[in-house]
Amino acid sequence: MIPKLHYISQGNTPEAHLDNLQNACIHGATLVQLRLKNVPLDQVLNIAKEARKITTHFNTKLIINDHYKIAKEVKADGVHLGKTDSCPTVAREHLYSWQIIGGTANTLEDCQVLTEKGVDYIGLGPLRFTTTKKNLSPVLGFNGYHLITDVLKSKTPIIAIGGITIDDLTDLIKTGIHGIAVSGEITNDFTKIDALQQSLGASLIEEQRHTFE
């Protein structure tokens, strides 16, 4: 089961990312993504190991952004691959069978390609402009999600991303998305996690279940 709320780590340093990830877990996050950019691989690995310890303690799913080999080494719950990262089919051959693969999409065609490649969820966005990500893809807006989900008709969970706030949930849920990925809204106030999960109708017990083979 893919959780409906994904927290994507933020921070000015790798250690700050780790602290924020831990705070998200403390406040009830059921899935967190470690997203470190422009950081040496050995440092990403070390932070990922610490993140795995934290998430294991809180029974929280851990996704590693970009680095599927590190995701396998630390036995994270999966990896999220951007549009310029490794191909999901290549990552699938390398990862354990129980590990999740998510992929980034901006268009209907992106979603169709990812579905054909067997990803477990699609991170579709951005909803609106955000400073969290450089080289931002064209903004979708609520109508963009409606148009894509109406045509796609896929069972692959769609996770909306990009500048999302708690006030967007009512309109976003109407578009047919499965859940949301949030960074700044949570980093600025970790107490919002509970309200976000309740609004999404997320089941804490179901989402914390792990299946390791």
> How many structural domains are formed by the residues?
1
Query: Which regions are unreliable across 5 or more consecutive residues at pLDDT < 50?
Result: 209-213
H/E element sequence: EHEHEHEHEHEHEHEHHH
The computed structural class is alpha/beta
CATH-level-2 architecture: Alpha-Beta Barrel
User: How many strand elements?
Assistant: 8
Oligomer: single chain
- Beta-strand content estimate: 15-25%
Main sheet: strand order: 1-2-3-4-5-6-7-8
What would the principal axes of the Cα set say about the shape? globular
- The CATH topology turns out to be TIM Barrel
Q: Give the averaged pLDDT, no decimals.
A: 93
CATH class (first level) name: Alpha Beta
Distance between the termini: 15 Å
Enumerate how many helices there are, as a single number.
10
Largest sheet: 8 strands, parallel, barrel
User: What's the CATH H-level homologous superfamily?
Assistant: Aldolase class I
